[in-house]
Amino acid sequence: MASGEAGGVSGSRPAATPSPPDGHGAAGQRVAEALRTSILDGDYLPGERIRQEVLADRYGASRVPVREALRMLEAEGLVTLVANTGAWVARISLAECEEMYQIRERIEPLLLRFNLPFISDADIAELDRLATAMESADVEEFLVLDRAFHLSCYDLAPTSVLGDLVRQLWNRTQHYRRAFTRVFRSEGDWSVHHEHHLLVAAIRRRDADESERVLAGHIRRTRLELARHPEVFTDGA
């Protein structure tokens, strides 16, 4: 979101931002999708410089759609742009992560409740498969499966605000979930898998209250565990 007021003589209107030439919008969207995937996959670390010329060469695009792509990702909270300086992968502090997780604890269970009537028996069977597959997955595969497990529960009910907000919070905390996954595996903690199966059981019973309770506790436990490891927010970033 942008803030502030346009300068100049009172009553004057700010100049309109020129539209990019035909084709640049589609190219910008294509670059944004590819770069978003690379950031979420861990190809870029928080705080890492993103060079526009490298993106232009990599994706066969001119500088205009690359700049459009970076602005899109800045609006999503994935990129930090500094005027006349450059672009970096956004990083968050422990305090910011704590706030995001507390928001998730409160709104994700509500989003799940909205979706629960639309989750079919076939969907539940797939959730059960994903929960089991995560138990033997490596870190990167776990992140893919975990994302599919949770977000597939949120895409069925039409929402105008909640679904997009939850997905943005997931994207902004992706790197730190990756670090958390390494931590709980190194400590031999299987709680996350137990919670996934509890959530599947509650959804199978169509028990909205229990589904909300299990999901809120699941998110809360991750938040508390991340708080125990502040090095996650400085190491490798």
TrEMBL record:
<keyword id="KW-0238">DNA-binding</keyword>
<dbReference type="InterPro" id="IPR000524">
    <property type="entry name" value="Tscrpt_reg_HTH_GntR"/>
</dbReference>
<keyword id="KW-0804">Transcription</keyword>
<feature type="region of interest" description="Disordered">
    <location>
        <begin position="1"/>
        <end position="28"/>
    </location>
</feature>
<keyword id="KW-0805">Transcription regulation</keyword>
<dbReference type="InterPro" id="IPR036390">
    <property type="entry name" value="WH_DNA-bd_sf"/>
</dbReference>
<feature type="domain" description="HTH gntR-type">
    <location>
        <begin position="25"/>
        <end position="92"/>
    </location>
</feature>
<dbReference type="InterPro" id="IPR036388">
    <property type="entry name" value="WH-like_DNA-bd_sf"/>
</dbReference>
<dbReference type="InterPro" id="IPR011711">
    <property type="entry name" value="GntR_C"/>
</dbReference>
<feature type="compositionally biased region" description="Gly residues">
    <location>
        <begin position="1"/>
        <end position="10"/>
    </location>
</feature>
<dbReference type="Pfam" id="PF07729">
    <property type="entry name" value="FCD"/>
</dbReference>
<dbReference type="Pfam" id="PF00392">
    <property type="entry name" value="GntR"/>
</dbReference>
<protein>
    <submittedName>
        <fullName>GntR family transcriptional regulator</fullName>
    </submittedName>
</protein>
<dbReference type="InterPro" id="IPR008920">
    <property type="entry name" value="TF_FadR/GntR_C"/>
</dbReference>
